[in-house]
Amino acid sequence: MKSALITGITGQDGSYLAELLLSKNYKVYGLVRRLSTPNTGNIRHIYDKVELISGDLLDQGSLQDAIRISEADEVYNLAAQSFVKASWEQPVLTGEFTALGVTRMLEAIRIVNPKIRFYQASSSEMFGKVTETPQKETTRFHPRSPYGVAKVYGHYITLNYRESYNLFACSGILFNHESPRRGIEFVTRKITHAVARISLGKQKNLELGSLEPKRDWGFAGDYVEAMWLMLQQEKPDDYVIATGENHSVKEFVELAFKTVGIDDWEKYVVSNKSKYMRPAEVDYLIGDASKAEKVLGWKKKTSFKQLVEMMVRADLEREKSKK
Ligand code: NAP
Ligand code: G4F
């Protein structure tokens, strides 16, 4: 039986990855930071099947302990301060979690067991102000946020430990991926949550920033499969994971309202650009995942339409079941 340690198991991706690894008969450990009120909603359904270890990306010793306790064959480093907008409000903390946290984990692996296979959650945010379309593994990085800069550091330190210490360390450059388990502050979930509430008469309107930015949005459940595949190869490498199509925030809004039978969505949506403006915006992302398709045999399974409908329906169910 293989053993895996997931940092960020309580987040969106961590919960889907834990499900996938359990279905493959792994012993699954999750690193969780101490909170006064535990945040385990995303893993409630598998709570008795995974083992949680207390630790923090800020604390080197706790990472080494987690590796020792789990006797992990594979470590998936998904934990991060992952909300781009917050990275301007807390740039130093974002660097500590999202950049130096990666080095701490790599050091823990190097010291405790350098045979461990390591996955780093890199991001399309690293491409930022894009220099090439579509973006692929060789596209130059031009990050536009403290988060993006921190991810570039995490990406290169992973590559550096692979080259310096011969670690089996892979970096997945994942484009935006969403699901009903997405945090409420991200634009997709903010939209589907509001659309469900508006259709039930619980909310009057939806306030967003700019409706123009375009993202390559996929389904998180499809993307965790790619993470696992990267660690099953003969050689460690880096891969872009994306759907190869992009849509604007406006298109997402339109489709979400359409799912609940509302066509005149404009009357419910307020675009407050100044309130949600980021000091530097990423306008346009679209990925080329042909390397992953060729080498890993990975392909997206869920379309944009299916994703939006799945998220709206899940929010509708949740809202209906609330008193
Ligand atoms: P998420 O839902 O925000 O989850 C982040 C996780 O990190 C949570 O479990 C959180 O724990 C944990 N965490 C944060 N700081 C920590 C610390 N100091 N020590 C230990 N754990 C900590 O993020 P996600 O969407 O699942 O994304 C997973 C990873 O992929 C992240 O690294 C993200 O930056 C990256 N990524 C995401 C996307 C995307 O579109 N989703 C795209 C590219 C890359 P709490 O529950 O305690 O907060
Ligand atoms: O949903 P978002 O906050 O995601 P963003 O910034 O693309 O970051 C996500 O994807 C990255 C991969 O490229 C991950 F690395 C990262 O961890 C995260 O998961 O914003 C998407 C777009 C932005 O252009 C934003 O300015 O939507 C625009 N937007 C417009 N109105 C809004 C809003 N974003 C948010 N969160 N809230 C709004 O009201």
Salient structural properties:
Rossmann fold, binds NADP nicotinamide-adenine-dinucleotide phosphate, UDP-galactose 4-epimerase, domain 1, binds ligand G4F, globular, 323 residues, alpha/beta, 16% strand, 2 domains, two-stranded parallel sheet, 7-stranded parallel sheet, single chain
What report would you give on this structure?
The strands form four sheets. This protein has a seven-stranded parallel sheet with strand order 3-2-1-4-5-6-11, sandwiched between helices. A two-stranded parallel ribbon has the order 7-10. The mean pLDDT is 97. It has eleven helices and 13 strands. The radius of gyration is 19 Å and the shape is globular. By secondary structure, it is of the alpha/beta class. It has two domains: 3-177 and 219-241, 3-Layer(aba) Sandwich (Rossmann fold), CATH 3.40.50; 182-215 and 245-285 and 302-321, UDP-galactose 4-epimerase, domain 1 (Alpha-Beta Complex). Ligand G4F is lined by residues 82, 84-85, 123-125, 175-176, 185-187, 190, 208-210, 213, 215, 249, 276, 278, 281-282, 285. NADP nicotinamide-adenine-dinucleotide phosphate (NAP) binds next to helix 1 and strand 5.
